[in-house]
Each structure stands twice: as C-alpha cells, then as structure tokens.
Hints:
By secondary structure, the chain is an alpha+beta fold. Helices cover 36% and strands 32% of the residues. It has helices at 24-44, 74-89, and strands spanning 10-15, 18-23, 48-56, 59-66, 95-98. The longest helix is centred in the N-terminal third of the chain and has 21 residues, at 24-44.
Amino acid sequence: MTFDKPETKDYVFSKNRKETIMNDAEILDAVEKIMEDEVNPALATHGGGAKIVTVKDAKVYVELQGGCRGCMGARMTMKSGIERLLKEKVPAVLEVIDATDHG
C-alpha cells in the first residue's frame, strides 16, 4: 500500500464552541507526537508498536508493528485504543484506518 504526502486541505471542526482549522499536514504532526509519547510506549509493553503511514482527508492511516501485527486484539487496539485517543486529543481526526498487512 502506498500513499502520497498529505495535502494542505483544511478541515474545520468545532469543540466547545471554539473553531479550529487543521490541514492534513498539521494533523499528521499532532498525531505523530501522540503516537510517540503515548501510544507506542503502551504497545511496546506487549512487544508491539504502530506508525502513521499517512493522513488523507483527515483520516489517519496506521500500520501496526511487532507483536501487534496479526494479533487477535488488533482491531480493538486500533478502534478502542488508538482511534479513541487520537480523536479525543485531535478532534480534526475523522477516522483511524488500519493500513497493516495482517496476512
């Protein structure tokens, strides 16, 4: 799976009546920091990890690595863990999509 670099399309979202505009590149910067500081240290305790592949149209494409790759709990980790956290911390994120080759 290959992806192009993030576009500079802006996404407007409102949280607590305060409008904020972020483009894909800004979303990428924000989620990479969260992945580095919070997500990967937690996944590393189980021998795994995750990396951002790209951000396109405010959707974050994530590849699971190590012990997380092919794990029975991968879907739960992606949706209930990573997606929930990223959407909470960066409300401009619309969705987190699993870009992992689980084959």
